[in-house]
UniProtKB/TrEMBL annotation:
Name the UniProt record assigns to this protein: Phytocyanin domain
Membrane topology: Lipid-anchor; GPI-anchor
Taxonomic lineage: Eukaryota, Viridiplantae, Streptophyta, Embryophyta, Tracheophyta
Keyword set includes Disulfide bond: yes
GO cellular component: plasma membrane; side of membrane
Record flagged with keyword Transmembrane helix: yes
Length: 176
C-alpha cells in the first residue's frame, strides 16, 4: 500500500511541477505569421497588417514564427534594410514557401519580402521578442496558444527544463 501511495504522490508532484513550468511560459510556441492570410501582399488599406498582427502577439526567446507563402520569399534584415525594403546581404533568406524562423534572442527582428515591390506594398514586419521578466502573466491562470486547438507545443519543452521536472519529481518520491 505504501508503494502505491508513493507512486500516486510522485505522479501528482510531476503533474504539479510540469504545470508550473507551463504557466511560467517556459514552453516555446509557434506562431503562424498572418494567421490564415499567410505571408502575402496586403491590400492597399491594410499596409500595416503584419506589424499590427505582430503587435497583438507576445513573443519570447525560442518561439518560432512560420511564414507560409506562394512565389515569394522572406528575409530577416537589419533595421535600415527594413526601412529601405532592400537587402543585398540578409541575415536570413528563404523561399521554400513554408519557412520557420526561431526568435533566438530578445529584441527586434525585421522581416521583408524578397520581392522589392511586395515589401513596398506592405509585405514586411517587425517582431519584438520580450525578455522573460517582461512577459505578462497568463490570463486567468491559463496558457494562450497560437495552435488552432489551443494546445501548447509540448514537443518544444526544453530538455533542461524537462530534466529539472524529472529530478524534482524523483526528489518528491524520496521524501514521501
Amino acid at each position: 500500500m505504501a508503494s502505491l501511495l508513493n507512486g500516486v504522490c510522485s505522479v501528482l508532484l510531476f503533474i504539479a511541477l510540469f504545470t508550473c513550468f507551463q504557466s511560467g511560459n517556459l514552453l516555446s510556441m509557434e506562431f503562424q505569421v498572418g494567421e490564415d492570410n499567410g505571408w502575402a501582399v496586403p491590400s492597399s488599406k491594410d499596409r500595416h497588417y503584419y506589424n499590427e498582427w505582430a503587435a497583438k502577439n507576445r513573443f519570447k526567446v525560442n518561439d518560432t514564427i512560420r511564414f507560409k507563402y506562394k512565389k515569394d520569399s522572406v528575409l530577416a534584415v537589419s533595421e535600415d534594410e527594413y526601412s529601405q525594403c532592400h537587402s543585398a546581404h540578409p541575415i536570413f533568406f528563404s523561399n521554400n514557401g513554408d519557412t520557420v524562423y526561431t526568435l533566438d534572442r530578445p529584441g527586434s527582428f525585421y522581416f521583408i519580402s524578397g520581392v522589392a515591390e511586395h515589401c513596398q506594398r506592405g509585405l514586411k514586419m517587425i517582431t519584438k521578442v520580450l525578455e522573460l521578466e517582461m512577459l505578462p502573466p497568463p490570463q486567468n491562470g491559463t496558457i494562450t496558444s497560437p495552435h488552432k486547438n489551443g494546445a501548447p507545443d509540448l514537443a518544444a519543452v526544453s530538455s533542461s527544463n524537462f530534466a529539472m521536472v524529472i529530478v524534482l519529481s524523483l526528489f518528491g518520491v524520496l521524501m514521501v
